[in-house]
Write a structure and sequence with these properties.
36% helix; 9-stranded mixed sheet; GMP Synthetase, Chain A, domain 3; 2 domains; globular; alpha/beta
């Protein structure tokens, strides 16, 4: 018995030694963290001599600097012309001293030129990679994606990877864009009920600022002028931040090809119709006459109810929208009590003004998606499929091509809550 007991202890000790040896032997594997180069952003452009120019932004190991000058030094961007993404990554492996790894990639930036030619092959390739996160954001850039990556400077973040995450989270409180991921884009592209969108990005420059000033000077006085600060797209905002990136608006696709753009205000309408709006600030016409407009905070009071039916063979789409608004701006007259916004009569006038403005604006937005883009980015197709007995009948009808024949009826019901000033 003593022999068996000692023998068992001996076997356990030997097994323990082998486990420790094999556990720590992985530290010398080629996949060790010290032997990997982590890509935090990928850029795709049309190449001059090859079909594709692939750019990668690498994270400099051990870097935690936060100033704009220091962060630009840590912004490692390399580019190569290649025939495919995989071949380009292989070329980078032969150039960089470490193995390229995509597991920490936060964004995929695609130039407008490439997106207009079709990007399905690239999305398939990226999602097919076991390293690539399906939650990486998709940005369509109005300039070369290489310039976009070079211009990304994490001023308020110590890590560039955190910078991309926080920069894109602004959609939660502005509504000026949508947080579109690689898997979202791919799912909408392969769907027969709707079309995909992507984040619209650009490099802020002096030239773009001048362009936005010209647009404002030449703008006509119309109901949309009250929201001119929300009507910019990326690359044309008047923000003074030379050679830095900005994301505003949405890139609209028909299939896998870019067909148009939505500005910040139209992006808000898209989020309202598709039940994705969390919060935003807009201006509505002031029916009380003491100012041109009233700034309000806008939220969905209930889920938007969309419905699709067919009239004479063409889609007839109804959207019933319920919103809650809170007044953000007041005038001197209202503060003196000469124009009390919160009398029962005036509250009804403000709600009616909001209803009319949103109804007209959202209707114009929907006709733009159908007549100009022929792109059902709001997914009305899922309400139309119930009229078809089989999927074959649905596919034969070809909703994504028939969306251009749609007519719309938008109804908005707004409820005015006490403004923050009056709580």
């Amino acid at each position: 018995m003593k022999f068996l007991t000692h023998f068992r202890k001996f076997v356990i000790v030997i097994l323990g030694i082998f486990i420790v040896i094999f556990a720590f032997s992985g530290a010398y594997n080629t996949q060790n963290i010290d032997r990997l180069a982590y890509v935090i952003a990928i850029g795709l452009d049309v190449g001059e001599h090859e079909p594709l120019k692939l750019s990668i932004q690498l994270s400099r190991p051990g870097s935690t600097k936060s100033s704009s000058d220091q962060s630009s030094d840590n912004n490692i961007v390399n580019s190569v012309e290649c025939s495919s993404i995989e071949s380009g990554l292989n070329l980078f492996d032969s150039y960089v001293s470490r193995k390229i790894n995509l597991s920490h990639c936060k964004v995929v930036v695609i130039s407008e030129e490439l997106a207009s030619q079709g990007i399905s092959d690239y999305t398939y390739t990226l999602l097919n990679s076991v390293e690539m996160s399906p939650h990486a954001n998709v940005i369509i850039c109005k300039s070369d994606s290489e310039d976009f990556l070079i211009s990304s400077k994490p001023i308020l973040e110590s890590l560039a990877s955190n910078y991309y995450e926080t920069a894109l989270s602004s959609s939660e409180y502005t509504g000026y864009t949508e947080n579109v991921t690689l898997i979202n884009f791919f799912s909408d592209y392969t769907d027969s009920f709707k079309e995909p969108v992507a984040i619209l990005g650009a490099v802020n420059s002096e030239q773009s600022n001048s362009l936005s000033e010209i647009k404002n000077d030449n703008s006509s006085n119309s109901i949309s002028d009250i929201n001119k600060d929300s009507s910019y797209i990326a690359g044309e905002t008047p923000i003074s931040s030379k050679d830095n990136i900005e994301n505003m608006g949405l890139a609209v696709f028909h299939g896998d090809k870019l067909v148009g753009e939505l500005n910040g205000l139209e992006s808000i309408f898209h989020l309202v119709v598709s039940n994705k709006l969390e919060s935003c600030n807009i201006s509505i016409p002031n029916p009380l006459g003491d100012s041109e407009s009233i700034d309000v905070n806008l939220r969905l009071a209930k889920r938007t109810k969309n419905n699709t039916k067919f009239v004479n063979g063409s889609p007839y789409i109804t959207s019933n929208i319920n919103v809650e608004i809170k007044i953000l701006s007041t005038t001197e007259e209202s503060n003196r009590g000469n124009s009390d916004y919160f009398t029962k009569e005036n509250m009804a006038k403000i709600e009616e003004s909001c209803n009319k403005y949103l109804s007209e604006s959202i209707t114009n937005y929907l006709y733009k998606t159908s007549k100009q883009f022929n792109s059902d980015i709001d997914g009305f197709g899922k309400y139309a499929v119930k009229y078809f007995l089989t999927m074959q009948d649905w596919n034969n009808y070809n909703w994504l091509e028939s969306y251009k024949d749609s007519t719309f009826n938008v109804n908005v019901n707004s409820t005015l809550k006490s403004g923050y000033t009056f709580i």
